[in-house]
């Protein structure tokens, strides 16, 4: 997820673009850059945050009334000056900024290299600039139209041509892009906050829109260059609220982004009806020798690894363990070259996780990183890395990153099962069909979020909560309890439901709240029996269950139903009501949800 801004008008473009980038910095912050078209075309870019770009701009004279700017969250190529946007065409007559992922960029790059083109960067975006120049015959709009017809994936683009100083072109497909309508000036941006200081009149572009932006008009075309109309919306948000998309907290905004995150994590990983993780190009013979798998991580990432443990044993038929990295690193784990270690970290900089990775490598284990931040320490040091593409997460409590981690871990395990001939064609087809339903399922859950808020209103003074579940639902119970502890400051514990009678039942009273997760169909009857045990002690029960679970409402006080998802994919969407429960509980208590006390987003010390 990146932030893009474009401006044309009577004012100097540079300060407006920098101001816009600052308002979009929550979308990405590993590098930034600007292109200004005045008497000539000038590009300045750098690794680091926007303040680093401002420092680099000191002493330069970028004069012009037309420009584009970008703040980056890397997806292809490590964060450095060269890979920062904007990107030039080969002749440097055209520059492009891009938010999204071009799935077929390698094929396009190979095609251009056969024609003798040489590339400067590791990014997918540079290919777009080269293609536009390939098609350019004095008409930027037509060159862009021809180029985007060849692109597969997601993109929001803004493009300048050195030869055309009275306009720029923007395009949207599956990545957000809006237009701001001013007086004698016009804007495009990834999100509304970038333009709010200058105009309240906004167009929300739709997929396939190609936009020709002049200072006094904005012409919108479809893919065939037929002129189309889009409505202008009057935005009445406060500027500070706008960065959160009008939501009260970043955490809620990030939970509501999860359907899109599900799509992005899946993008390019299902091709022609088959699961394919090109990053995991291990030799088949290597996997025949693997005799154990570890998942090492901390906090929420550890809970994602627990899901992986269950799935590895089921689909790879190899013993698996999930272990907290701070424990793994300080004992003497029995691992060797026949061990595969998944290293899971949102930031890729978690100190204990990094130390566990280095220990695994010392012992000759193969390592796979499941990481969000491109070019992070974990990403650089593992043998193979699979990015989750969740975009920046601002709230300290991880939400959308967990969803993407579980999805990517699941995809990776199924891909490895294919390599060693343990996933048959029928099962693969079933998984592909079910993966493609997840976005809609997540949206359905979020549409019913007020049910969770309503339940919280009756329990907001509770001081102790137990989360129970079996199998994959147990992994979810740990994550649900962690979220409640992190942001609502409620003492919460996650337990295997079958462990209730081995201790926790002694704590159940009429003042106890138990959240029972019952989405793993083979063990539903047993979980219902455990709920009855809680009710017999007077405890209050909120159950989370699939729609086809008709018995649960007879034993629980309240039930939040989720769609009938495939059992092995339930964690990806079942976590959403757990996150919402913690969020609404913290909000009801008036707490600082995005920055809970004593916690930090990335734990880079022991």
From TrEMBL:
The active site is at residues 2, 601. Residues 282-429, 455-596 form the SIS domain. Its EC number is 2.6.1.16. GO terms for biological process: amino sugar biosynthetic process; carbohydrate metabolic process; fructose 6-phosphate metabolic process; protein N-linked glycosylation; UDP-N-acetylglucosamine metabolic process. It is an enzyme of class 2 (transferase). It catalyses: D-fructose 6-phosphate + L-glutamine = D-glucosamine 6-phosphate + L-glutamate. It comes from the Bacteria. The keyword Cell division does not apply. GO terms for molecular function: carbohydrate derivative binding; glutamine-fructose-6-phosphate transaminase (isomerizing) activity. Pfam families: GATase_6 (PF13522), SIS (PF01380). One of its GO terms (cellular component) is cytosol. Residues 2-216 form the Glutamine amidotransferase type-2 domain. Keywords: Aminotransferase, Cytoplasm, Glutamine amidotransferase, Repeat, Transferase. Gene3D superfamilies: Glucose-6-phosphate isomerase like protein, domain 1, Glutamine Phosphoribosylpyrophosphate, subunit 1, domain 1. PROSITE patterns: GATASE_TYPE_2, SIS. The keyword Plastid does not apply. It is found in: Cytoplasm. Catalyzes the first step in hexosamine metabolism, converting fructose-6P into glucosamine-6P using glutamine as a nitrogen source. PANTHER family: GLUCOSAMINE--FRUCTOSE-6-PHOSPHATE AMINOTRANSFERASE, ISOMERIZING, GLUTAMINE--FRUCTOSE-6-PHOSPHATE TRANSAMINASE (ISOMERIZING). Homodimer. This is Glutamine--fructose-6-phosphate aminotransferase [isomerizing]. It comes from Caldisericum exile (strain DSM 21853 / NBRC 104410 / AZM16c01). The gene is glmS.
């Amino acid at each position: 997820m990146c932030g893009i801004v474009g401006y044309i008008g009577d004012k100097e473009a540079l300060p407006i673009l920098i101001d816009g980038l600052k308002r979009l910095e929550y979308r990405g912050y590993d590098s930034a850059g600007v292109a200004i078209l005045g008497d000539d075309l000038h590009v300045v870019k750098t690794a680091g945050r926007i303040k680093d770009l401002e420092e680099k701009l000191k002493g330069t004279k970028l004069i012009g009334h037309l420009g584009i700017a970008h703040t980056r969250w890397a997806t292809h190529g490590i964060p450095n000056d060269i890979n920062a946007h904007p990107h030039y065409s080969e002749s440097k007559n055209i520059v492009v900024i891009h938010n999204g992922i071009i799935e077929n960029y390698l094929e396009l790059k190979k095609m251009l290299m056969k024609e003798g083109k040489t590339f400067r960067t590791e990014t997918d975006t540079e290919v777009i600039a080269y293609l536009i120049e390939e098609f350019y015959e004095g008409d930027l709009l037509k060159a862009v139209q021809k180029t985007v017809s060849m692109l597969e994936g997601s993109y929001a683009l803004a493009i300048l041509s050195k030869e055309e100083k009275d306009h720029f072109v923007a395009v949207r497909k599956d990545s957000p892009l809006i237009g701001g309508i001013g007086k004698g000036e016009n804007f495009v941006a990834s999100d509304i906050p970038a333009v709010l200081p200058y105009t309240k009149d906004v167009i929300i572009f739709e997929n396939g829109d190609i936009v020709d932006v002049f200072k006094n008009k904005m012409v919108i075309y479809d893919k065939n260059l037929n002129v189309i109309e889009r409505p202008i919306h009057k935005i009445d948000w406060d500027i500070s609220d706008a960065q959160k998309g009008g939501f009260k907290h970043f955490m809620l905004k990030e939970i509501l982004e999860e359907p899109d995150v599900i799509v992005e994590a899946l993008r390019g990983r299902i091709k022609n009806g088959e699961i394919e993780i090109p990053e995991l190009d291990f030799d088949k013979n290597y996997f025949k020798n693997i005799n154990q798998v570890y998942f090492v991580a901390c906090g929420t990432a550890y809970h994602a690894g627990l899901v992986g443990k269950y799935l590895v044993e089921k689909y790879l038929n190899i013993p698996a363990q999930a272990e907290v990295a701070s424990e793994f690193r300080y004992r003497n784990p029995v691992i060797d070259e026949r061990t595969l270690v998944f290293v899971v970290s949102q930031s890729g900089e978690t100190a204990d996780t990094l130390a566990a990775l280095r220990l695994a490598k010392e012992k000759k284990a193969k390592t796979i990183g499941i990481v969000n931040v491109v070019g992070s320490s974990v990403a650089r040091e593992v043998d193979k890395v699979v990015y989750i593409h969740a975009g920046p997460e601002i709230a300290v409590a991880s939400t959308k990153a967990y969803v993407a981690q579980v999805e990517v871990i699941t995809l990776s395990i199924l891909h490895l099962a294919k390599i060693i001939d343990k996933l048959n064609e029928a099962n693969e087809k079933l998984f592909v069909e079910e993966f493609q339903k997840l976005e809609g399922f997540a949206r359905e859950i979020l549409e019913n979020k007020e049910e969770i808020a309503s339940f919280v209103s009756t329990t907001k003074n509770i001081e102790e909560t137990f989360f129970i579940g079996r199998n994959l639902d147990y992994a979810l119970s740990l994550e649900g309890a962690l979220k409640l502890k992190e942001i609502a400051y409620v003492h919460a514990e996650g337990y295997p439901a079958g462990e209730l009678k081995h201790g926790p039942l002694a704590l159940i009273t009429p003042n106890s709240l138990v959240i029972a997760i019952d989405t793993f169909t083979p063990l539903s009857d047993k979980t219902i029996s455990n709920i009855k045990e809680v009710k017999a002690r007077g405890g209050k029960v909120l159950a989370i269950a699939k729609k086809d679970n008709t018995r649960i409402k007879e034993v629980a006080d309240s039930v939040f139903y989720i769609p009938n998802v495939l059992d092995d994919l339930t964690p990806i969407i079942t976590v959403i009501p757990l996150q919402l429960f913690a969020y609404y509980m913290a909000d009801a208590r008036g707490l600082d949800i995005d920055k809970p006390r004593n916690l930090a987003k990335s734990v880079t010390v022991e």
